[in-house]
């Protein structure tokens, strides 16, 4: 894949689906992103024309179809609140597609025979997209872990799309009681990989669980971002090859290259 | 661009600019895909990320934080050092086909001389240097140089001795006597002053109940600071005869026009590019229409007009 | 208010506050309809518009201007003078049933002494004085007093001699050595420092192609300045032991919490009241929930906690 | 009328009527304003939840009915653009009612026998409301002056409500060619008044036209405002009794009390 720098596009909200009290699926018409995005890439989304909020909000591409793409937005603060309350018909500004996705994150290394996908909460978004693009690679476990109450919408949404979804919740109200990692196999054979996205704690637990297999774990990370184009160096992550930008060198890294202990919690 | 782009052209501090919009230091990556004509419409020149003699890893922990109409950064001058720049950054910068400035951190006198000597070794490839005496995000050097007229003079004198091309000096708005610092830069041979850098500020992380940044303070930029930056531009334009480049919060052609009316010869645009790639073109277009509508011949007619009108002193 | 309002109470700089939210000077009119309990929910105290010895007409021309997330003002201390205040302002202020501060402009030493003597003549009616050494919108006096530690000391010494009630001193963020100014105020007997006033800025009128304000510069306030004000509060809290009141851009309970974590004992709220009358109540409520959620006993547990945690220095 | 300080209210946009390319009528549900506003009073309107734009925008109350009131909003900058593009169903924030209306502006002085109403452009708004409340006072001329092209919507709107409307336009495309003042009577008998609202130039021309009758001309003025509650002293106007606040001492003044020459243009 040749590198393309992200661009800014207007994007019409085609559908605004409130999945549950805090989770919204936004379907956006935006050929510029829809034509090129790959799983693991994300967009920087802005609502309105003012400068407050100032910065775009990074959200993973969760699906593509024709000239549209979908994001799953979990409301945590003012930016996500604004985005998820943008009605159909209104316009957002999109910078994208941003970043290096699951495929490109290990350039040259062929895809493994089997991939297990593990999402924590709305971190499931890029994995949903990845799942649709896996081709010639077997899908192992597909696991979604959530806190429980308040996550009905997302789990339903994911369940409708993935019949084989293993669902875990901490409070036991959705799927099995437990953590996402409970659904993973004991060991990770050489020809298998795990792709994961979710809360930092989950990813760290993953690295503890498979200490010898970090090179076969691909993680999609988060970081505070300003530019979404590799310019500000605001999103950097300490790695074995120095500081790397989550927005453009990532967000997908192998668990092996991340210096977990130097990363701020 | 609509209208007559040649009316936007000028030479500022030794650098021929096709548009008065300069991309500020530290915001534009060395990504070849972004140094192409179609990604740089309306851009007169670009300033690189700060370059120091040795590589710098920058600051740990949180580096950016959103604020009302702005943002804080505590990057801490992360860069690969001047040799890395020569090898990997310079070719990208050259590919853009328009002037650029190498933003050089004022470190110790020895370091900056050495750094400039390395740049000077390829003098013909480097259109200009922007001496950064104003970074608030490092200890010891950085902004400290720009805080007084005296230390500014010393910094500029060293740089001037080591670099004979166009030299812009990027001042810090934290300087208590900013006009004095600007005059010192002029006296020591700066070709232009950039006014200015980010504003010292901070953020608190309410979840962690502690400052968001490890160094506590960070630099505020974006539209929030525009009225502050404009005031400093007004002050500095009243103090020096070399060109002044307005920098801080420019996010629209109106902001750029205000800077020019206050006396700036050009503007630098930083954070606003984080929300709009197309801003330089919009600024250039807007300025062109504004000057035309005002019956002003060319860009230079705008520069300082606000001051002239004010000093003309008609009753309002 | 929800929760236990008594946890919000404290005594700050000699003034008992039922909530740490103080209405800043120059924003609340002497309109009796606005000094009633139901219009002042969550308000711990109010500062009056600046009072000078003689009446002042204030500045001519444009006086307010919107900016990104903020506004500029150049009111210029318009007020009816201290005698008018005693006759017409004071009865209104008294009607609110909560403490207030008379914001007194630092004019000449003679004027301020006379002004304070007049207030002192009714000492029992006036809970506190806020000495304003920080107005950027007048020539000669105003902010000039607050610019150095020395002149601040002089101003506070004079005021202290003429007024024996609680004395808060409102500093200017334009002071190059703000910590020094704060220390000077403390040394001369101030009971608290307010940190701070508006930030020197300007606006250009693009239609008229000249500065928007007749005095060119004006004072920036509102959310835009919050990160700047927070940084000054952090600095000043590290320099003095008397209470610090954070002022500048507070527009949410989160902002207030950040100020307290940085060491402020209370906050003043100005411009944000122009967009939300109900803000003081929202701040008081939000603070109460935040402290409760954090398992902190009362408001005082929050004050300076951000500094303690920072100095505790755990790795982040 | 006892004085009430303005309050802040949420207000639902019940109707958004785009009258022409630049003029919009917004019908807002807001009992707090609708129950008390008098002609000449205004509101400070804000859209959205951000702080940019920061300040409210002053707009005159143009009509009341039940729990609703109407404003006419002419798009001139970002604030009015935002307000006039707020769709029905959305919420705005209102501070109001603000100010001293036509009636209160000359407390104690009985209403005249006849009132002429002269509006320039969207300055017609408060006069439309005044017209509906005149009771026992004869209405003389009712005049609307506009530039011409681009004002079709407002003139239609006003015409539908005022059968006797005299319409003037500078370019002659709407009504008669000319200025609003062309429609006024030669002299102003003692028992008559003129109430006017519109561009500064029009109001100044009015004072030139009736130099001896300024006490019987009531003008609704504009000024940049920050607080809309009498607190900031940002909106003051030099008058014969010193600086007075346009927001709370006005916006209606008699032409006599205004020091026109000291007022910044
Ligand atoms: C590469 C990437 C992909 C993401 N994908 C998704 C997704 O598909 N769905 C989803 O719901 N969320 C996703 N997030 C998280 C999402 O970006 C944040 O929840 C959002 O930015 C919060 O904004 P706010 O204004 O609501 O919260 P606030 O806390 O008010 O935001 C304040 C500032 O902090 C930043 N910030 C806050 N939380 C985060 C975070 N977790 N990561 C990065 N910046 C943050 C904001 O961008 C903003 O600049 C992703 C984050 C990254 C970095
Ligand atoms: C008492 C009063 C009643 C008004 N009634 C109406 C009305 O019924 N319909 C209508 O369309 N307009 C009315 N106006 C004018 C209207 O307030 C301005 O057009 C509007 O504020 C412009 O905002 P903006 O963001 O679109 O323009 P911008 O120029 O971007 O605004 C920038 C700043 O200047 C202020 N400003 C700009 N123009 C004016 C102005 N003419 N008067 C006051 N402040 C201004 C804005 O409020 C804002 O703070 C009235 C003004 C006042 C003072
Ligand atoms: C993320 C970031 C990194 C920056 N890095 C540098 C730098 O390396 N050298 C420098 O001189 N200025 C740097 N600056 C300052 C900008 O060049 C500019 O002076 C400042 O941000 C104010 O302009 P703005 O408001 O348009 O962003 C940086 C600013 C930001 C936001
Ligand atoms: C319109 C206006 C008038 C003001 N008048 C005074 C004043 O008379 N005395 C004073 O000490 N501060 C005055 N101030 C400053 C405020 O009290 C406050 O310190 C400043 O606005 C910063 O706080 P804010 O961002 O919350 O508004 C004024 C501010 C505004 C906006
Ligand atoms: S967000 Fe700017 S470099 Fe990644
Ligand atoms: S707008 Fe504040 S006093 Fe009138």
What does it look like?
The complex is a heterotetramer, with two copies of chain A (265 residues) and two copies of chain B (316 residues). Chain A is α/β, with parallel strands linked by helices and 265 residues long. Chain A folds into two domains: 92 residues, Elongation Factor Tu (Ef-tu), domain 3; 159 residues, Rossmann fold. Helix content of chain A is 15%, strand content 35%. Chain A is built from five helices and 16 strands. In chain A, the strands form three sheets. Chain A has a seven-stranded antiparallel beta sheet. Chain A has a seven-stranded mixed beta sheet with strand order 11-10-9-8-12-13-16, with helices on both faces. A two-stranded antiparallel ribbon of chain A has the order 14-15. Chain A is globular, with a radius of gyration of 17 Å. The relative contact order of chain A is 0.15. With 316 residues, chain B is an alpha/beta fold. Chain B has nine helices and 16 strands. In chain B, the strands form four sheets. In chain B, strands 3-4-7-8-9-10-15-16 form an eight-stranded parallel beta barrel, surrounded by six helices. In chain B, strands 5-6-14-11 form a four-stranded antiparallel beta sheet, with no helix packed on it. The longest helix of chain B is centred in the first third of the chain and has 15 residues. The model of chain B has no long low-confidence stretch (mean pLDDT 94). The chains are: A alpha/beta (265), B alpha/beta (316). Chains B and C meet through strand 11, strand 13, helix 5, helix 6 and helix 9 of B and strand 11, strand 13, helix 5, helix 6 and helix 9 of C. The complex binds flavin-adenine dinucleotide (2 copies), flavin mononucleotide (2 copies) and FE2/S2 (inorganic) cluster (2 copies). The site of one FE2/S2 (inorganic) cluster has 12 residues of chain A, from loops. One FE2/S2 (inorganic) cluster (FES) binds next to loops of chain A.
């Amino acid at each position: 894949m040749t590198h393309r720098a992200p661009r800014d596009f207007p994007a019409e909200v085609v559908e605004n689906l409130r999945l549950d009290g805090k989770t919204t699926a936004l379907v956006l018409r935006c050929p510029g992103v829809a034509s090129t995005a790959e799983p693991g890439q994300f967009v920087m989304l802005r609502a309105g024309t003012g400068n407050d909020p100032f910065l775009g909000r990074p959200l993973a591409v969760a699906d593509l179809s024709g000239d549209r793409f979908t994001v799953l937005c979990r409301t945590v603060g003012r930016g996500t609140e604004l985005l998820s309350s943008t009605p159909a018909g209104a316009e957002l500004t999109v910078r994208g597609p941003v970043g290096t996705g699951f495929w490109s994150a290990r350039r040259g290394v062929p895809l493994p025979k089997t991939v297990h996908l593990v999402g924590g909460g709305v971190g499931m978004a890029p994995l949903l997209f990845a799942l649709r693009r896996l081709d010639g690679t077997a899908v192992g476990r597909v696991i979604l872990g959530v806190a429980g109450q308040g996550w009905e919408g997302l789990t339903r949404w994911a369940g409708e799309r993935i019949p084989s979804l293993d669902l875990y919740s901490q409070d036991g109200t959705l799927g099995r009681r437990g953590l996402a990692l409970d659904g993973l196999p004991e060991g990770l054979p050489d020809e298998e990989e795990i792709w994961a996205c979710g809360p930092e704690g989950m990813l760290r637990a993953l690295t503890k669980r498979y200490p010898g297999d970090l090179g076969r774990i691909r993680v999609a990370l988060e970081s505070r971002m300003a530019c979404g184009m590799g310019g500000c160096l605001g999103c950097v992550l300490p790695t074995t090859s120095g500081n790397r930008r989550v927005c453009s060198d990532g967000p997908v890294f192998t668990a092996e290259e991340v210096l977990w202990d130097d990363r701020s919690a | 661009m609509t209208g007559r782009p040649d009316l936007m052209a000028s030479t500022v501090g030794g650098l021929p600019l096709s548009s008065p919009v300069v991309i500020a230091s530290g915001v534009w990556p060395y990504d070849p895909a972004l140094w192409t004509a179609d990604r740089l419409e309306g851009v007169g020149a670009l300033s690189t990320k700060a370059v120091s003699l040795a590589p710098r890893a920058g600051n740990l922990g949180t580096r950016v934080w959103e604020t009302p109409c702005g943002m804080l950064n505590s990057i801490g001058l992360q860069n690969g050092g001047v040799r890395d720049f020569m090898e990997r950054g310079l070719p990208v910068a050259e590919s853009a086909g328009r002037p650029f400035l190498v933003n050089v951190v004022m470190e110790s006198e020895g370091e900056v001389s050495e750094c400039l000597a390395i740049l000077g070794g390829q003098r013909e490839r480097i259109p200009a240097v922007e001496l950064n005496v104003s970074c608030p995000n490092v200890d010891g050097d950085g902004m400290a140089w720009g805080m007084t007229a005296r230390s500014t003079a010393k910094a500029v004198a060293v740089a001037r001795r080591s670099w004979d091309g166009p030299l812009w000096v990027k001042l810090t708005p934290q300087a208590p006597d900013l006009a004095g610092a600007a005059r010192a830069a002029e006296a020591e041979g700066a070709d232009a002053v950039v006014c200015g850098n980010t504003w010292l500020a901070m953020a608190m992380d309410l979840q962690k109940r502690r400052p968001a940044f490890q160094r506590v303070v960070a630099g505020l930029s974006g539209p929030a600071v525009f009225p502050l930056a404009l005031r400093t531009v007004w002050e500095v334009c009243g103090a020096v005869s070399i060109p002044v480049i307005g920098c801080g919060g420019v996010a629209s052609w109106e902001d750029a026009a205000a800077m020019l009316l206050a006396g700036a010869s050009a503007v630098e645009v930083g954070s606003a590019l984080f929300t709009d790639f197309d801003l330089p073109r919009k600024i250039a277009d807007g300025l062109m229409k504004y000057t035309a509508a005002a019956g002003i011949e060319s860009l230079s007619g705008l520069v300082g007009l606000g001051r002239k009108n004010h000093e003309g002193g008609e009753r309002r």
